[in-house]
């Protein structure tokens, strides 16, 4: 006689459950750190503006999308489906790639302009670099945990 062991299906949280589950607890820190990157980059003016435009795009895009993702999960709009678990992983993996590229570009521009910037602006840019890489780490951890949840779904 063959024994079947059914694994319990993982579920996507909704409501206040997003404040207690492992990957979803990172939504608020991602919003806070991403918002800080956005504010810090917006408060300085250095040349060339093109890489900073990419950093601003990434920080604003990820901030808005993470907020929408948080609202969708909090309101239960995902209906606990397999597709939402996959989309959660894909979005957070894309955010990791975006933030990593933005953090590297920001660090490079800050390094290049080290001698030409005033000390106050240089400190703000260094802070933006640190928060960009911290946000990258948060999105990376969230993506890994989302991948595990997707696999177990």
From TrEMBL:
<dbReference type="Pfam" id="PF01284">
    <property type="entry name" value="MARVEL"/>
</dbReference>
<feature type="transmembrane region" description="Helical">
    <location>
        <begin position="53"/>
        <end position="77"/>
    </location>
</feature>
<dbReference type="InterPro" id="IPR008253">
    <property type="entry name" value="Marvel"/>
</dbReference>
<feature type="transmembrane region" description="Helical">
    <location>
        <begin position="121"/>
        <end position="141"/>
    </location>
</feature>
<feature type="domain" description="MARVEL">
    <location>
        <begin position="18"/>
        <end position="151"/>
    </location>
</feature>
<dbReference type="GO" id="GO:0019911">
    <property type="term" value="F:structural constituent of myelin sheath"/>
</dbReference>
<dbReference type="InterPro" id="IPR050578">
    <property type="entry name" value="MARVEL-CKLF_proteins"/>
</dbReference>
<feature type="transmembrane region" description="Helical">
    <location>
        <begin position="25"/>
        <end position="47"/>
    </location>
</feature>
<dbReference type="GO" id="GO:0016020">
    <property type="term" value="C:membrane"/>
</dbReference>
<feature type="transmembrane region" description="Helical">
    <location>
        <begin position="89"/>
        <end position="109"/>
    </location>
</feature>
<keyword id="KW-0472">Membrane</keyword>
<dbReference type="GO" id="GO:0042552">
    <property type="term" value="P:myelination"/>
</dbReference>
<keyword id="KW-1133">Transmembrane helix</keyword>
<keyword id="KW-0812">Transmembrane</keyword>
<protein>
    <recommendedName>
        <fullName>MARVEL domain-containing protein</fullName>
    </recommendedName>
</protein>
<dbReference type="InterPro" id="IPR013295">
    <property type="entry name" value="MAL"/>
</dbReference>
């Amino acid at each position: 006689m063959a024994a079947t062991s059914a694994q319990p299906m993982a579920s996507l949280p909704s409501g206040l459950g997003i404040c207690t589950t492992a990957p979803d607890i990172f939504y608020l820190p991602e919003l806070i750190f991403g918002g800080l990157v956005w504010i810090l980059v917006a408060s300085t003016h250095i040349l060339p503006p093109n890489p900073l435009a990419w950093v601003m795009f990434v920080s604003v895009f990820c901030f808005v999308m993470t907020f929408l993702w948080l609202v969708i999960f909090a309101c239960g709009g995902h209906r606990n489906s397999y597709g939402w678990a996959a989309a959660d992983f894909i979005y957070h993996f894309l955010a990791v790639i975006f933030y990593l590229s933005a953090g590297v570009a920001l660090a490079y521009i800050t390094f290049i302009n080290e001698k030409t910037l005033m000390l106050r602006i240089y400190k703000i840019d260094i802070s933006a670099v640190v928060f960009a890489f911290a946000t990258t780490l948060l999105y990376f951890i969230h993506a890994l945990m989302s991948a595990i949840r997707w696999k177990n779904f």
